[in-house]
Design goal:
Layout lengths: L8 E10 L5 E9 L14 E6 L7 E6 L2 H23 L2 E4 L11 H37 L1
């Protein structure tokens, strides 16, 4: 964890973790805007993004990436993993402040959007593989002639 940079939230969410015994614990997660120069000594030349997994802005974790976009995406993935692990290891469930269930993998809309994109990517990969196989077959035939 680092407190070298001042935390300014880009997005945040307050949740409640309900343990297997019914105990409720407030959870606050947030992510900052990415920045060009990571503060961690071992991350020289990389971009950084601060994430917060509690309500104390002095207890942030710096996530790094090759550039600002990668740092932001890595920070988002870190928070998602934190929430998924909280449920799987903690054995409970997350809910929003209004009591509605919260899925750390995203809303149904987001999950469907990911599934559509995955199908498109799979189709493109299949098409590219078919083209390269056809191209390779053609090259072999030319060599045989």
């Amino acid at each position: 964890m680092t407190s070298a940079a001042r935390f300014v939230s880009l997005a945040s969410r307050d949740l409640i973790f309900v343990g297997p015994d019914g105990y409720e614990m407030p959870i606050h997660v947030a992510i900052s805007a990415p920045y060009a120069d990571a503060k961690a000594e071992e991350a020289k030349g990389e971009a950084g993004c601060l994430v917060l997994t509690c309500d104390d802005p002095d207890l942030t974790t710096e996530i790094t990436g090759a550039d600002e976009m990668e740092a932001l995406l890595a920070g988002r993935e870190f928070l998602q993993s934190f929430l998924v692990n909280l449920e799987s290891i903690g054995g409970g469930k997350l809910k929003a402040l209004d009591g509605s269930p919260f899925d750390p993998n995203g809303s149904i809309l987001l999950q469907e959007s990911r599934a559509i994109q995955a199908r498109k990517n799979a189709r493109r990969s299949t098409e590219n593989l078919a083209r390269s196989t056809t191209s390779s077959d053609g090259d072999e035939k030319e060599r045989d002639d």
